[in-house]
């Protein structure tokens, strides 16, 4: 049974650069990682010789190579100095596995995992901690990137004194605030591309929203907040509807689009009960509500009368909010589940692009 002894986190405010700047992020990693490691060891009651440690887990990818390199160098140095094994971890697999640590009734393999973040949008079938099949991924932008760009276009404040760490989270908060005037602003629905297909695409809806803002909100800060809020809500709805559609297809709750009927999804013949939603965007409360509604009321999403018969057996899992974004706890737990992959090899390098199917 796994137990978390400590967790130390260092945050960086990216608002001054409008988002994550690779060079600045790397400098921040290098400056803050030594102290963060020392704090985690101290909080866990582990001495400087690392005697109590059996192995060191580290993220190998995917992600920004420069930031990954900082962590890899630190982990290899500690492993060499303390004569410990090292376990290289795929950080998207770690996201998918987190509920196995945090829940009393965790998901059972095989399960679906929806990984949504600033860099990824994918629906994956997890067969084991080391075996995954990609069912759907984005052909262009990620959902998190679309949220961030629309939030910036609407000039929604974030960072600094707001306490909000990224533009997408600021958009969610802005869209959720009550506004008696919002109902007066009628925003045409933004498109949900390729409904009934197993591909995500966010460049189209993002471009549609940005064109709307450019046409009708030339200066967002001087536009009525209710109008801006209505745009934020319409965008969020369109972005999440696309997620709902692909999840429903994977569970067999909706029909494929015309021409794709004979193309396998990858879940045929499997008894899948569980959906894990993780990654930074998994903290979005609107997304959580819509996915819960989809699994609890599948008949409202189905074209087939019998599609909702197993509704009561389907379960939705989210990591705790603090573990939705990237964190060391999930990396350590993923290493715990893949203990047989520990090694003394220090020749592994960062893998900025690394498919979950290639573990």
UniProtKB/TrEMBL annotation:
Molecular function GO labels: metal ion binding; tRNA N(6)-L-threonylcarbamoyladenine synthase activity
UniProt key word Metal-binding: yes
Keywords for this protein: Acyltransferase, Metal-binding, Transferase, tRNA processing
EC number: 2.3.1.234
GO cellular component, one term: mitochondrion
InterPro entries registered for this protein in UniProt: ATPase_NBD, Gcp-like_dom, KAE1/TsaD
Keyword flag Transferase: yes
Domain Gcp-like stretches: 4-333
Pfam families: TsaD
Catalytic activity reported: L-threonylcarbamoyladenylate + adenosine(37) in tRNA = N(6)-L-threonylcarbamoyladenosine(37) in tRNA + AMP + H(+)
GO annotation terms (biological process): mitochondrial tRNA threonylcarbamoyladenosine modification
The name this protein goes by in its record: N(6)-L-threonylcarbamoyladenine synthase
Protein's organism: Tilletia horrida
Phylogenetic lineage: Eukaryota, Fungi, Dikarya, Basidiomycota, Ustilaginomycotina
């Amino acid at each position: 049974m796994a137990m978390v002894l400590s967790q130390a986190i260092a945050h960086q405010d990216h608002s001054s650069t409008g988002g994550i700047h690779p060079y600045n992020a790397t400098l921040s990693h290098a400056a803050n990682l030594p102290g963060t490691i020392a704090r985690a060891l101290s909080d866990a009651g582990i001495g400087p010789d690392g005697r109590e440690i059996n192995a060191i887990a580290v993220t190998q990818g995917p992600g920004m190579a420069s930031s990954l390199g900082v962590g890899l160098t630190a982990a290899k140095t500690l492993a060499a100095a303390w004569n410990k094994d090292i376990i290289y971890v795929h950080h998207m697999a770690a996201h998918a596995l987190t509920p196995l640590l945090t829940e009393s009734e965790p998901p059972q393999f095989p399960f679906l995992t929806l990984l949504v973040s600033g860099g990824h949008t994918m629906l994956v079938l997890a067969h084991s901690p080391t075996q995954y099949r990609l069912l759907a991924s984005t052909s262009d932008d990620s959902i998190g990137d679309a949220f961030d760009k629309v939030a910036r276009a609407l000039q929604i404040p974030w960072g600094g004194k707001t306490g909000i760490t990224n533009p997408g989270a600021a958009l969610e908060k802005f869209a959720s605030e009550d506004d008696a005037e919002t109902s007066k602003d009628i925003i045409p629905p933004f498109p949900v591309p390729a409904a009934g297909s197993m591909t995500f695409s966010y460049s189209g809806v993002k471009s549609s929203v940005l064109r709307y803002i450019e046409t009708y909100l030339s200066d967002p800060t001087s536009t009525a907040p209710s109008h801006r809020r209505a745009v934020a809500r319409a965008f969020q709805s369109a972005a999440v509807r696309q997620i709902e559609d692909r999840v429903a297809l994977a569970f067999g709750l909706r029909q494929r689009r015309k021409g794709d009927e004979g193309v396998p999804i990858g879940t045929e013949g499997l008894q899948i009960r569980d959906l894990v939603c993780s990654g930074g965007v998994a903290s979005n409360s609107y997304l959580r509500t819509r996915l819960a509604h989809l699994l609890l009321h599948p008949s409202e999403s189905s074209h087939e009368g019998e599609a909702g018969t197993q509704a009561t057996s389907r379960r939705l899992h989210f990591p705790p909010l603090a573990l939705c974004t990237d964190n060391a706890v999930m990396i350590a737990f993923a290493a715990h589940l893949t203990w047989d992959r520990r090694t003394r090899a220090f020749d592994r390098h960062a893998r900025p692009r690394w498919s979950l199917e290639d573990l």
